[in-house]
């Protein structure tokens, strides 16, 4: 995973175009929506690693609405809210509802790319942990099967050894016959 699938949601076409150009230049896959209603339609039909959404948009669905729908559809989608009207209350509300971060306009692209890099690193760590858990599960299952097979083999060997011991301890039988019986039990 070297890039992120990003949905840019903003009613301002200049902001959408600027974000799209910069994100594609950083080798991310970018889709856009000009309002929250279109964003919600796209969220319902495609997975996005990150959604960059303006907080205040016309059309009945604002950035908080996009955030809520994104988290309802897939908790793995990270949402960064962008606004020109930043306030501590808005930031707290967004974080409580699951936003990973909050940016002010005009967008500082160094800050944005740093946050996207952190999201990418976190997603890679989660994937690596998941891969490791899967490998551990396979190893555990395989080792369990191997131990079970070894226990069966050990039980069979013990049974044969007991039969060989019994054959060799038959004192009323000639030694050659006892050895022959032990060899037959050894072969199985």
TrEMBL record:
SUPFAM superfamilies: CheY-like
Gene Ontology CC entries for this record: cytosol; protein-DNA complex
The keyword rRNA processing appears for this protein: no
GO BP term, example: regulation of DNA-templated transcription
Keywords, comma-separated and alphabetical: DNA-binding, Phosphoprotein, Transcription, Transcription regulation, Two-component regulatory system
GO molecular function, one term: phosphorelay response regulator activity
Span of domain Response regulatory: 5-120
Gene3D superfamilies, sorted: 3.40.50.2300
Residues found modified as 4-aspartylphosphate: 54
Coiled coil: none
PANTHER family, A to Z: REGULATOR OF RPOS, TWO-COMPONENT RESPONSE REGULATOR ORR33
Name of the protein in question: Response regulatory domain-containing protein
Natural source organism: Desulfosarcina widdelii
Lineage start: Bacteria, Pseudomonadati, Thermodesulfobacteriota, Desulfobacteria, Desulfobacterales
């Amino acid at each position: 995973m070297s890039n992120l699938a990003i949905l840019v949601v903003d009613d301002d076409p200049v902001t959408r175009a600027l974000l799209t150009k910069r994100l594609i230049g950083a080798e991310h896959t970018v889709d856009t929506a000009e309002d929250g209603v279109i964003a919600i339609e796209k969220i319902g039909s495609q997975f996005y690693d990150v959604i960059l959404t303006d907080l205040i948009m016309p059309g009945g669905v604002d950035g908080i609405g996009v955030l809520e729908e994104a988290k309802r559809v897939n908790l793995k989608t990270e949402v960064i809210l962008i606004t020109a009207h930043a306030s501590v209350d808005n930031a707290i509300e967004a974080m409580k509802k699951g936003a990973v971060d909050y940016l002010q306009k005009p967008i500082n692209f160094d800050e944005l790319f740093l946050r996207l890099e952190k999201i990418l690193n976190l997603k890679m760590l989660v994937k690596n942990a998941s891969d490791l858990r899967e490998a551990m599960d396979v190893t555990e299952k395989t080792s369990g099967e191997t131990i079970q097979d070894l226990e069966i083999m050990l039980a069979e060997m013990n049974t044969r050894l007991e039969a060989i011991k019994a054959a060799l301890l038959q004192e009323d039988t000639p030694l050659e016959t006892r050895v022959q019986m032990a060899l037959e039990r050894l072969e199985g």
